[in-house]
Design a protein that fits this description.
29% strand; 17 strands; alpha+beta
Length: 305
């Protein structure tokens, strides 16, 4: 008998406690950076009043969840992250993200203010965003900063020189690279292009393509032109020569800046080490009756300055 009473009490307790289950539903297709995204918070048990549910986003910098409808989060959202809009339409709770960016992928969740709900928050949802930046072509073997300053568009090399180029980009996934030459039917599946002992036939336009391995429509290209100069061309006529001149100019500028800084510090140190000013060097008021003044018949001793 006691067993039946215990089972009945457990059943009543279970019925009195809401078993609502919240879930954030997002897009089923791959999302590209810059697209508009809509999320919806749903109650799979259909027992909750959705007016008591709200969206939150986790800040990786502040290490906390932010309610996206609160005044506290307004400045944080609008000025530092992205533009979002929480909409309540016919009992539905929607989150609209305009022109989503890679840094606004989430995670997001929806949470209920009803304390009687056993599990009042959904599982966090992070939106995978696919992106690819512009492709840059540069000499192979350069560091990141050198790549930034030495991106090439028109390459000039001497006959018989060796050329090794590399194309790179920043993307959500490691892209697939392919080199091709205009007017020829060969393809080189690599991010590097090597031309040994170039001839006149090696001149022309080359294109490097970067393509996402999962989203085939996500592709970026960069086309460069290679001009082959005579073997006796001056070194400064080549692209490498121009890069060398730029490097020399940059080094000279650095030396000038360091020298001026050292000189300014030395002058400041000298000024600081000087003693008090000699009182005799200070300007003294000239009195009309003093011997240092101009001849005057006035007898007062009021200073002129």
């Amino acid at each position: 008998m006691r067993g039946y009473i215990f089972i009945t009490l457990v059943a009543l307790t279970f019925l009195q406690t809401s078993t609502a289950s919240l879930e954030v539903k997002g897009p089923s297709e791959p999302i590209l950076e810059g697209q508009d995204v809509t999320l919806e918070c749903v109650d799979t048990e259909s027992v909750l009043n959705m007016s008591t549910v709200h969206f939150e986003r986790f800040s990786k910098y502040m290490k906390r969840w932010y309610r996206l409808e609160s005044d506290q989060a307004y400045f944080y959202r609008r000025c530092f992250l992205y533009d979002v809009d929480v909409r309540r339409e016919e009992g539905r709770l929607l989150l609209f993200i305009a022109s989503i960016q890679s840094w606004s992928e989430g995670p997001y969740r929806c949470i209920s203010e009803d304390s009687s709900v056993a599990d009042n928050s959904s599982q966090p949802l992070t939106i995978p965003i696919h992106y690819m930046r512009e492709v840059a072509v540069h000499r192979a073997g350069l560091g990141y900063l050198q790549r930034y300053f030495n991106s090439v568009q028109d390459l000039k090399v001497r006959l018989g020189d060796d050329v090794e180029l590399e194309c790179s980009t920043s993307a959500s996934e490691a892209p697939e690279y392919v080199w091709a030459k205009e007017g020829e039917d060969w393809l080189l599946p690599s991010n590097k292009l090597k031309l040994q002992k170039v001839t006149e036939q090696d001149g022309g336009r080359y294109t490097c393509s970067a393509q996402s391995p999962t989203v085939r429509s996500l592709m970026k290209k960069r086309t460069i032109s290679i001009t082959v100069l005579p073997e006796d061309a001056a070194w400064y006529e080549t692209t490498t020569g121009r890069f060398s001149l730029c490097g020399v100019g940059l080094a000279f500028l650095v030396v000038v800046v360091i020298s001026l800084t050292a000189y300014a510090c030395h002058r400041a140190k000298q000024s600081k080490s000087k003693g008090p000013i000699d009182d005799r060097s200070q300007k003294k008021p000239i009195y009309r009756a003093s011997v240092e003044s101009l001849p005057s018949t006035a007898s007062d001793k009021q200073p002129l300055v």
